Fold:
Amino acid sequence: MLRALTPLYHWHAAHGARFIERDGWQLPAAYTDAESEAAAARAGVGLADISAFAKLSLLGRGVSAVVQALLGDGPALKPRGVAAFRAGDPVLACRLTEDYLLLLAATPCAAGLRQCLANVPQAPVVQHEVTSSYAGICLVGPHTEDVLRQFTSLDLTAALPAGTCAETNFAGVHALLVRPPESHLQLVRIYVGWDLAEYVWQRLLEGSRKEQITPLGFEGLSLMGW
Amino acid sequence: MTAPSAVPLTGILIDSTRSLTFTFEDRPVTALAGQSIAAALYAAGVRVFSRSFKYHRPRGLFCVSGDCPSCLMQVDGCPNVRTCIEPAREGQVVRRQNAWPSADFDVLRIFDRFDRFLPVGFYYKHFHRPRWLWPIFEHTVRHIAGLGRIDLDAGPFPTAVVEHLHTDICVIGGGPAGLAAAAAALAAGARVLLLERGPQLGGHLLYDGGRPGEIEPLRAVLESPRAQVLCGTTAFGLYEGNLVGAFREGGLLKVRARHVIVCTGSRQQPFLFPRNDLPGIMLGNGVLRLAHLHGVRAGRRAVVLTDNDGGARLAGQLADLGIEIAAVIDQRVEGPCTGDWPTFTSSTVLEARGNKRLRAVRLARRDANSQIIPTTEQEIACDLLCLVSEPAPANELLLQAGMRFRPQGGRWLPDGTVPGLSAAGGAAGTLGLDAQVQEGRLRGAEAAAVLGYAVGFDFRSALADFQLRNAPAPAGAVLGNHLASLANRKSFVCLCEDVTVKDLEQAIAEGFDHIETLKRYSTVSMGPCQGKMCSLAASAVCARVTGRDPAIVGTTTSRPPAVPVDLGVLAAGRRHHPVRRTPLHHWHQAAGARWLDAGWWKRPESYGDPESEVRAVRQAVGLIDVSTLGKIELVGPDAAELLERVYLNRWADLQPGRIRYGVMCTEEGILFDDGVGARLGPDRFYLTATTGNADAVFQWLELWRDTWRLDVVLLNQTAGTAAMNLAGPKSREVLARLTRLDVSAAAFPYLALREGEVAGVPCRLLRLGFVGELGYEIHCPAAYAWHLWEALVQAGAAFGLRPFGVEAQRVLRLEKGHLIIGVDTDSLSNPLDAGLEGLVRFDKPLFHGREPLLRLKAMGPRCRLVGFRIDAPVAIPAELEGCQVVEQGRPVGRLTSVRFSPTLGGCIGLAWVPAAESRPGTRFHFHWAGREVPARVVPTPFYDPEGKRLKC
Structure:
């Protein structure tokens, strides 16, 4: 059977993760037990590997037309805006630049993304599935910003309010930070190149001892309302 | 060791109900919680805290503010810790440094007796001849001089972290002015970050008998959610763009503020008189800090030396602390007499007396011409001499940020403004508590208003009025004159570097009469205090000796860091080097790969035996992870046009499903990168780039796409796409087991591309021959790389498949004579000389490098990249890379790649040689290990010159 692995699979395995399979992907369900992982994240910061979730990029002059058709006059109409919508499952639309839209699903299945785009009028854009291009790391918990401040010089208050995204230097590498709109959680998604995932993950864990950062499996992430 | 006397004082920082014990040179010392190491040692009777840098003179507690070098000790293996501000902790191990056998009895003190033979700059003049003497001397000097030594066995030290903070206004300094500035900015609605280096807010009010109650309302304002107050945080640098560098326990802070207000206060300066460095001589504020912050009395009987009203005030404060006042020596003609102690006006200290601690001071009156009146000389017994000079601004951060100061009315005051920066309080030269608070309030309001916040009063008028009222009197004191009044070889200007007044005078006499050259020659202000204790005095000496105005002389340049910073703090966040891993990294690791760093990438160099890996590829089949290659997709109607313009060869005529090798140059015709490109469709191409240039090539394409306004979308697939090269005579059979694609030579020929599933994974297959064998480069989404690799390894097991690493690949490609850009070429290499002229299509109207290459073509080649063989035995061929090709002893070229070829049974390589010597069969020599080794030019490829094996 075809197995898809996130770039952090071997880290999860080496740290005792119990895996579940979703759409061919091997995902860490929990490292210890979901309840205690979620509790630790609620007190400090949880760190979850969301690399497997489907991602689709749209590039080209027609991006504005696609956004208008898909989301109307939402925040994603402008660069660095992020809008949430549903395509079966919840999706985040991140407008990185005028001609670059990134769609982030909340599951490994990309079918919903493609389906919603099928109904959008034709526009000069290039669709490209980038699930394996960007590794995704989710930071969740009350001390999320304290952790982020150790790795980026971005002004999180001014440059990354809820419902925005920003490309920035993070731990010395290029990253995309996404803060979903209207989240009841202190939550930021970090996207870096697939090849840099393990480096960034380890930096987050090693550099954040005082914030009590805890790896969080998908069961724990669900308990936190993902 | 126990405290010799009870300490009836209550220090603000200490908890007298809790005590702790640390070890000082193998003896236990008791301290109160919160007390500094130095204060505890002082209370325990220690007076010699360190030995000086050059002469090993005894030095005692002096500033009690972390500004001077006198209390530097080794704490828990960490050298040069400023013990006057370092809190004592249970179990600490504290040692004095730079002394032998001990700081109390340092035999190296002998240098103090021979100071006549160690004049300023002596190391520039002596011991240089005979030449063999210098290394011995240098070693000796380094051993004797200097500061502490790093204890390599100490640690582990905690890892410092870096934290980035942002704010509207950053106020540096939590004294009265800083608090007032922060409160005013907060009141206007701004976000404020207040950095205070001490453990508590309040600044000088905590110890100098001010009115601490006045700051309570200001302190309350800081409870605002828009305020962030960080005590125990020291700002050490103010950089371009209002970036404030600071540190606190555990880490480095990088603060970016829209406006910075520096309220770092002021500091008293030492006076210059013979033996002014004896233990027992302290700054007046140091004595107060020791008493009020740490609960330790600095002496029993004190003399106060002053040049302002602060001296009399200090005498009263010391008396209140129970210290007997022996005398107040006021250098001015008139001064206040505030107590029942003698006050000597128009007087100065002629000399401090004592050996390892102060025993007495000798003083005398001066006449109207500042000359000493010998008949007035007298000696006063004391164990404490307090120096109370006019305070100088603690303005290092302001100077770093470009603010200038000039002497006005006897004070150094800001001269001009810097956008986004202001100063208040002592740092701005403002004296008096009320004025400092008012200035802070006005500067806070001003900063908030500049940032667009509404300020509820006319701060501009108030500020103008304030400046008018606080302007110095035009006929103020002659700046620094008193500091430099006495010249003697034991009058120390720079306590850090043991520079005396005599040294400076001599340096000026030798021609170093500019303050900056004086600094470099004499090393004044180059020690740990970075000029805080000596810069003004050095300026005053320079002004007096050269007869120039102090404003013209100026002060030395202030550069970050303004205070000593642990190297670990500066390295915070830099401990890790980014590492890029391919999706197969852990497979290689488990297979015993030896790693090679290729930029940020980790690549398997080999799995133990590169030669057998080469043989496996030549005889059976091998598999290498080439995921590090750049992978770029171009989509759009102008895709072919963009490639036509950036590559040397043609792309427009490439048929879909076909692949072509391509080379690109810079505008100057220099080789930039190479790779293959495949046409996926009429408007779609897929390129590979070299590992080292992947990102640069993508940016290059983006740049020229935008410059030429071409309609093409570029997709960087380097990270998201894994790639592996299945190569060898058995590769077709292995692949056939895993795919339904027709992989026969007819259906899938050399330089063709196919898309389809391999082991169930959607792939792009490129039939290439970089290693000179039948081969397939298989590209797939990174997430499926592990699955595909394992499937290939499993299917290939029956055919003898072996994974191979970069080393084997280098040998294999060398056997084919393929160059690697960046290895076999450099920043001067062009395609014509490199033997790639066949790729350059001068019939294209436009491509990068066309014009310079046309000129080069007309000139003819000067050198050539050729293949060669070495017939002489060579132990490790790879070590020859970089060796010079020589002709009659002159370098005329170089070897770029050299390897032993297991296939050919000899040593082969590529080399740049003069064009005239590039014909096959020509012999040349290269220089190696002190001899000239012969080699001969041979045609390339070395292996399978017809290319039958890769095209089969």
Q: What stands out?
A: Confidence is low (pLDDT under 50) at residues 1-7 of chain B. The interface with chain A takes residues 159, 161-166, 250, 254, 256, 573, 576-583, 585-586, 601, 627, 633, 635-636, 713, 715-721, 760-761, 781-784, 786-787 of chain B (CB under 8 Å). The two ends of chain B are 89 Å apart (CA to CA). Residues 433-450 of chain B form the longest helix (18 residues).
